[in-house]
Amino acid sequence: MGHHRRIDEAVRDADNVSDKITPIVRIRNLGDSAIEWEVKYWPIDYAKYNDTDALVRQRVWYALRRSSLSFAYPTRTIQVERKRPPRPTTAEEGIIDRLTAIDVFAPLSTEEIQQLASTTVGHVFAPGEALIRAGEEGSSMFVVHNGRVEVQVVENGRPRIVAVLNEGDFFGEMGLFTGEPRTANVVALDETEVLEIGHEAMRRLFETNPSLVESISWTIAERRAGLAATTQSETSIEESAGVLVSIKRFFGLK
Ligand code: CMP
Q1: Number of domains into which the chain is organized
Q2: Are 55 and 103 part of one and the same domain?
Q3: Cβ(37)–Cβ(61) under 8 Å?
Q4: pLDDT tens-digit series, residues 190-241
Q5: CA–CA gap between residue 149 and residue 77 (Å, rounded)
Q6: Domain that residue 52 falls in
Q7: Which of 161, 170, 217, 223 has most ligand 1 atoms within 8 Å of its beta carbon, as the pocket-test mutant?
Q8: I want to staple 195 with a disulfide (CB 3.0 to 4.6 A). Which of 18, 86, 143, 207 is the partner?
Q9: Is the distance from the beta carbon of residue 224 to the nearest atom of ligand 1 less than 6 Å?
Q10: Is residue 75 over pLDDT 70?
Q11: Does residue 132 line the site of ligand 1, with CB under 6 A?
Q12: Of 40, 34, 33, whose CA–CA distance to 7 is shortest?
């Protein structure tokens, strides 16, 4: 039995549908997402038109369901585009790789790196934005994750570029480790994502990794020399030792 006949019978059996005149069932339109059928029948009592119409639709629905014919709802192919997570929340693996590649973190165990990675906070800066301003207080350091920054000191009202730091370099360690005000401006050159490492996370690592304190104090002594305007003095052991002492004092280490 074709769909046509099934509909025809279902309609004809409905209450108030005249069996004197055969209902007409025909295709009205081959549409984009459905074939539209038209069903015409003659009510016995026209006053009951609304009830009859509802009943006829119900009968058609059941008849079609029995023939395993589903109604055609408009369908569309949906391309699901997963939004990439906003830049500040870089995937943890990326952060772990980044931190692992940093020289001074070499003494850290895999667990310590993982622990550190989970406490870092990402920040994205526009080109030209200052990440750190000389003279401010600050108790975090930053790792350049993407992009580039410039370290500048202002001399006689003019900025002097002290260094350009790239992916994998860190800055802000002076303020973090000595408790002194920021020594320079750090300005993003490109769109730059940095990973912020806080005081507490560092303190924990210092307790278990004395060599980390030492290597960082070397970096600080070296950079201090770089900051000194004219006299590009060699970094001395004493200078580094002085930094080491002040770091230990600041972190309450023995
Ligand atoms: P901090 O003093 O906390 O803030 C400014 C930062 O600039 C400083 O830490 C260092 O990380 C960085 N910085 C200062 N001097 C130099 C330098 N000579 N070379 C590279 N980075 C530097």
Answers
A1: 2
A2: no
A3: no
A4: 999 999 999 999 999 988 998 998 899 999 999 998 988 644 555 666 777 7
A5: 45
A6: 3-66
A7: 223
A8: 143
A9: no
A10: no
A11: yes
A12: 40
Does residue 75 sit within a domain?
Answer: no
Ligand 1: does its nearest atom lie under 6 Å from the Cβ of 171? yes
Nearest-CA residue for atom 16 of ligand 1: 223
Question: Ligand 1 pocket: which of 164, 170, 173, 183 to mutate (most atoms <8 Å of CB)?
Answer: 183
44 domain-assigned:
yes
At 90 the pLDDT is 61
147 touches ligand 1 (CB under 6 Å)? no
- Residue with structure tokens 């600080």? 220
**Ligand 1 nearest atom to the CA of residue 171, by list position:** 11
Q: Is 226 in the pocket of ligand 1 (CB under 6 A)?
A: yes
Tell whether pTM > 0.85. no
151 and 207 share one domain: yes
Q: Residue 12 has which token pair?
A: 């004809």
CB atoms within 10 A of CB 71: 9
Domain annotation covers residue 71: no
pLDDT (0 to 100) of residue 87: 46
Q: Which residues contact 218 (CB under 8 A, 6 or more apart)?
A: 235, 240
Q: Are residues 54 and 103 in the same domain?
A: no
Q: Is residue 77 part of a domain?
A: no
Region 73-90: mean pLDDT is 66
Measured from the Cα of 138, ligand 1's closest atom is 3
Is residue 76 over pLDDT 80? no
Q: Is the CB of 151 under 6 A from ligand 1?
A: yes
181-199 tens-digit pLDDT: 999 999 999 999 999 999 9
* 80 token code pair: 């699901």
